[in-house]
Design goal:
5 helices, Non-ribosomal Peptide Synthetase Peptidyl Carrier Protein, Chain A, mainly alpha
Length: 84
């Protein structure tokens, strides 16, 4: 399963169950749509760190990195590449 699919499944299972009618696209902004709030971002950071074995610095918790599925996939991919 790809990073994108893993993250989509996680977001779907943990955040979208309250909005089953929402068809989330890769570019949709989580906060704008009310998919994830600030507490959800903290949960998402923890999941990314645990699942992919990366460390997320406070300065990296931005709208660009954690605001959409596409941004999240780019961020995780870049962190994993940098770790190699």
């Amino acid at each position: 399963m790809s990073v994108r699919d893993e993250l989509y499944d996680y977001i779907n299972e943990n955040f979208l169950y309250l909005q089953p009618e929402l068809e989330l696209t890769d570019e949709d902004r989580f906060l704008e749509l009310g998919v994830i709030d600030s507490t959800g971002v903290v949960e998402l950071v923890g999941e990314v760190e645990e699942r992919y074995g990366i460390t997320v610095e406070d300065a990296e918790i931005t709208e660009d990195n954690f605001g959409s599925l596409a941004g999240l996939v780019r961020f995780v991919s870049s962190k994993r590449t940098a770790a190699v």
